[in-house]
Amino acid sequence: MREAFARIRRRLKRRQLDAILVTQPENRRYLSGYTARDHAINESAGVLLIPSEGEPYLLTDSRFSLQAEQEAAGFRVKLYPRGLFPLLRLLLKRHRIKRLAFESHYFLHSTSQTLAKLADSLKVELEPLTGFIEELRLEKDAAELARIERAVLLNEAVFQEIYRTLRPGRTEKEVAQAIENTMRLKGAERPSFETIVASGPNAALPHAVPSDRPLATGETIVIDMGLVLDGYCSDMTRTVVLGTPDEKTVALFRLVRKAQLAGLNSLRAGISGMAVDKIARSVIERAGLGERFGHGLGHGVGLNVHEGPSLNYRNRKPLAAGMVVTVEPGVYIPDWGGIRLENMAVVEKEGCRVLNRDTTFLEL
Amino acid sequence: MREAFARIRRRLKRRQLDAILVTQPENRRYLSGYTARDHAINESAGVLLIPSEGEPYLLTDSRFSLQAEQEAAGFRVKLYPRGLFPLLRLLLKRHRIKRLAFESHYFLHSTSQTLAKLADSLKVELEPLTGFIEELRLEKDAAELARIERAVLLNEAVFQEIYRTLRPGRTEKEVAQAIENTMRLKGAERPSFETIVASGPNAALPHAVPSDRPLATGETIVIDMGLVLDGYCSDMTRTVVLGTPDEKTVALFRLVRKAQLAGLNSLRAGISGMAVDKIARSVIERAGLGERFGHGLGHGVGLNVHEGPSLNYRNRKPLAAGMVVTVEPGVYIPDWGGIRLENMAVVEKEGCRVLNRDTTFLEL
């Protein structure tokens, strides 16, 4: 992360900022190695204060002091027995910080009012920033890619174990719970999002919540699952059928897979997220089902399960090598069901490398 | 919740506010019955717009439309295909809202900037509020108390099942994981916070994270666990010893229990949170261990596992009947271990009702 620091400092100086307060938990972990998680945005496990010159600080409370000291190599750990602001006052004065950036997208309005009062009393100028650290996280290095790949493969191992147990009569909720238990038993930190198991008509909702509906033969069953391993996330969707899928189902599977392959085959450094989305989407549109694919094609994955870059109609920026994205086209037919197929891939200079190996129901 | 609405409207009118935007997820659920959870503060499952007159709205996106319609009785569900703000513009104009409150403590600074622009263009005045809805949630009604009690009893059933399996050699992490799995298997929605299992010297940290340390005989093992059932939380701590506790351990157990009982015996409508904290704390102080009890005595529990009222040196307000609090004194001795005992109780007009029945290691 030494390089990330050098880049942050250069970018702070370029904007004439003396320091940045880092509150977003994954940014905090990325820069410091400190793995504690916030109980909630208003129950923070700590804040980084990174000056444009001099050593960076990790500010936290006594509950986390040991963990902070052990994990945040290169950071001075300071405790705030009376809350963040008295300590911050001290450090802003000590380091003569006159222009302070903070993470506007992970800072409560109420806290920003307290910060504004402090800044006012010290004649410090505040600069709300969005995505400043996240930009550094877009391109993953080799160590990060290795972790992401392990998270992908563990997720597939869990899927395979559960897939073998699917039977008509088991409910969506039971299957989702078995998936999340198996993740933990196999060593995942936690699911990276709430597992989706959606069968029959429920599968027509892209973000269905697992219900007490029992699985039945012949219907599509969408399973969207991911886990966190060593801080990094995986995210995969498979759609399966118990028994023999009918012709309509097979035709739709092939269509969605064709769209997915079109997307994957177009992925490479330099192409925009918008263009990749369009290439995959046009496969579904040509089949007259464009209206049935109502979400973006994919999103970045890393320390957050949803991060940049987006593969959708809004992202005009070129992708870069080392970015990790999902490619997850779907078709959703009300009162019938849905099919979504999702793999993760690393963008490379010439093309991409798909991280998934599981082929269940992909080549129907 | 009809009564809560009437109270909100009265309070809005008193402050000459035309409407409030409710973003805090538990406030949203409390008022609307809508149970969807935010994936994160920046991935909201919906927002309430409650005018001081006329019907309230639930604003969400198409992923949640079905659930919103099913659950939020009395609310008009409106979808925002292009994000919250275009829809909000429409509604603010339609209802001629000129003074709009929002929840400053659950509103990102970055979102508040977008809201400020919208308000500016419509000449709407914004009023950031904190705790406006939370205040209504402090005093629980009979239906809420029944749910909380069920969450407490289920938590105890999980504890008992795990307690029987504790053996020297099992690690803290294994036990914590078994607890959380058992919660789900027994029907809990999820743990209400990350389970603490801290043994030996780790038990000297009030907020220890479960480690790979194996349990050993004779040491104190602090188990702090809670679950969510039907939206409501439980929170309980037991400290146990494998084998026979030595004299020091027994003496400290008795001291902490005495402090807990002193706190519980003082709980009643009209006493302040500060006074209850002081009464329990003085038991530990008189034993010369005041410095070893470094946190507040307790906190409110409801839809959030940490909510008002606080039992600590800052809360001068009188408690009221129907409030639910934890009473959790502890002593923490560096390099030795710690003991914390936590029960939940409902404040009543004359005294309190302890919700816990489990007595494991309480009457040593």
Automatic annotation (TrEMBL), chains A, B:
<dbReference type="GO" id="GO:0046872">
    <property type="term" value="F:metal ion binding"/>
</dbReference>
<keyword id="KW-0479">Metal-binding</keyword>
<dbReference type="GO" id="GO:0006508">
    <property type="term" value="P:proteolysis"/>
</dbReference>
<dbReference type="InterPro" id="IPR036005">
    <property type="entry name" value="Creatinase/aminopeptidase-like"/>
</dbReference>
<dbReference type="GO" id="GO:0008235">
    <property type="term" value="F:metalloexopeptidase activity"/>
</dbReference>
<keyword id="KW-0378">Hydrolase</keyword>
<protein>
    <submittedName>
        <fullName>Xaa-Pro peptidase family protein</fullName>
    </submittedName>
</protein>
<dbReference type="InterPro" id="IPR000994">
    <property type="entry name" value="Pept_M24"/>
</dbReference>
<dbReference type="Pfam" id="PF01321">
    <property type="entry name" value="Creatinase_N"/>
</dbReference>
<keyword id="KW-0482">Metalloprotease</keyword>
<dbReference type="InterPro" id="IPR001131">
    <property type="entry name" value="Peptidase_M24B_aminopep-P_CS"/>
</dbReference>
<dbReference type="InterPro" id="IPR001714">
    <property type="entry name" value="Pept_M24_MAP"/>
</dbReference>
<feature type="domain" description="Creatinase N-terminal">
    <location>
        <begin position="6"/>
        <end position="138"/>
    </location>
</feature>
<dbReference type="Pfam" id="PF00557">
    <property type="entry name" value="Peptidase_M24"/>
</dbReference>
<dbReference type="InterPro" id="IPR000587">
    <property type="entry name" value="Creatinase_N"/>
</dbReference>
<keyword id="KW-0645">Protease</keyword>
<feature type="domain" description="Peptidase M24">
    <location>
        <begin position="147"/>
        <end position="348"/>
    </location>
</feature>
<dbReference type="InterPro" id="IPR029149">
    <property type="entry name" value="Creatin/AminoP/Spt16_N"/>
</dbReference>
<dbReference type="InterPro" id="IPR050659">
    <property type="entry name" value="Peptidase_M24B"/>
</dbReference>
<dbReference type="GO" id="GO:0004177">
    <property type="term" value="F:aminopeptidase activity"/>
</dbReference>
